Amino acid sequence: MRLINTHTLKLEEFHGSIPPYAILSHRWETEEVTFDDYPTQVDLPSDDAMKGFRKIRYCVDQAKKDGLDYCWVDTCCIDKSSSAELTEAINSMYAWYRDSVICYIYLSDVSTSITAVDSRMDDETAALLHYEIGSSQWFRRGWTLQELLAPRRRTFYNASWSKIMDLDKPDGRVSRVESRSPAYQLSVGLTDTIAIATGISKDVLKTFSSTSTNWSVALKMSWASNRQTTRIEDVAYSLMGIFDINMPLLYGEGAKAFLRLQEEIMKTTYDHTIFCWSDPSATCFIRFVYGDLAGSP
After folding, report:
1. Long-range contacts of 39-44 (CB under 8 A, 24+ apart)
2. Strand 22-25 relative to strand 70-72, pairing
3. In whole angstroms, how far apart are CA 27 and each of 139, 156, 243, 271?
4. CA dist list (Å): 192 to 24, 154, 199
5. pLDDT tens digits, one per residue of 42-74
6. 157 by DSSP, 3-state: which?
7. What residues does each domain of the chain span?
8. How many CB atoms lie within 10 A of CB 76?
9. What percent of the chain has pLDDT over 90?
10. Using alpha carbons only, what angle is made at residue 211 by residues 59 and 191, rounded to the nearest 5 degrees?
11. What is the DSSP string of 61-114?
């Protein structure tokens, strides 16, 4: 695993024992910093060099504030020119998010912040925050599912890296659950907004484990429905960690990847809900198909 040292800013490789680290979840946009783009010098270039450096700097600075010596950003910590490294990374991705100390979720299309919430925050501002978060494109990504469910602690930040909320605490500034301050109430409400945006209940958001049998195959697939990935194969590859399976990556196989995913799932479970899916192309309103594999989540 390759990590960014938050003090030297250099990339370091680890095998076996991995030090505590923060991890970033974000959307790939223009001017991302790849492994080949990452500088070998100590200082990161200015934001004018490539826009992707800004979020890397945000992540590094926050990890350092949180007392962590390392952080991980997928854009520059994976050498995607190596098919072997890419395969290992995608098969390990769920575990990397799960084993992180904290996951920083960067919503680049959200501008409103909760950091200044107090008794004077009006309903209109609160409504705008809920709307912006629920409308964020981050929630539409295929890879978001494991990046949201795997980490033990998840903190959301807006476009300027102002803290929105800590999903795993009532609010970072509220020390006691019994404190019913406006900040606490709004934070709880944002958890509802995230549950609505993802289709995942608050209980699952708090307790999910890929090895648990508490949630059926069909339910997990429903969380993945209507999500988008750039590569069609990633519809399947982004779900491997959710179902606790591993399989080779074959970019170019297209929709066959999702069929392989289902075959691997059937090797590990007797859950027949994998066969319970609806065909949107059927002439009737809904036709439930039993005994065959679905073409997509």
Report:
1. 40/10, 42/8, 42/9, 42/10, 43/9, 44/9
2. parallel
3. 10, 13, 23, 33
4. 22, 15, 10
5. 566 555 567 888 999 999 999 999 999 999 999
6. strand
7. 2-207, 217-289
8. 21
9. 60
10. 50
11. HHHHHTT-SEEE-HHHHS-TT-HHHHHHHHHHHHHHHHTSSEEEEE-TT----S
Query: Rounded CA gap, 143 and 227, in Å?
Result: 9
With tokens 């990339």, the residue in question is 11
Q: Three-state SS across 106-149?
A: ECCCCCCCCCCCCCCCCHHHHHHHHHHHHHCHHHHECCHHHHHH
CA distances from 55 to 3, 50, 79, 81, 204 (A): 15, 10, 19, 22, 28
The three-class DSSP label of residue 289 is: strand
* 161 and 111 Cβ atoms separated by less than 8 Å: no
Length of the chain, in residues: 297
Tokens of 16: 């076996």
Q: What is the CA radius of gyration of the chain?
A: 20
Q: What tokens does 276 get?
A: 């319970």
Closest CA to 145 of 199, 184, 102: 199
CA distances from 134 to 33, 139, 195, 228 (A): 27, 8, 9, 16
pTM value is 0.87
**Cα–Cα dist 147/219, whole Å:** 18
